[in-house]
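Appendix B, Record 12. Input sequence as logged:
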Amino acid sequence: QVQLVESGGGLVQAGGSLRLSCAASGRTFSRYAVGWFRQRPGKEREFVAAISWSGGSTYYVDSVKGRFTISRDNAKNTVYLRMNSLKLEDTAVYYCAADISRISGSANQPYDYDYWGQGTQVTVSS
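Logged structural output:
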């Protein structure tokens, strides 16, 4: 079992920054990959970024490359998503998820992930 708790969401102006955190407990944290997804109003949940067990490999959806950075601190059982240059279209509920079947972080579909947090709202205003 893995429990995930997101934090760090909030209201920010366009062009601003936020850092989301995902605190994990349960299974040994360093033995699985973690991803961030988001769900915008009326849309399907979509992949944002993922990171391998060691942090050595990271993956991003094209729309956030160069603006978002995913990282992890295995000593703190936490994954972060640093979001810079935020745009109105980044407004969504952001979820972190654990892929306990893979360590690579290469999975980008919601069905690849086994455990999910409750989500944190990010709202970008003009």
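The chain has a mean pLDDT of 95.
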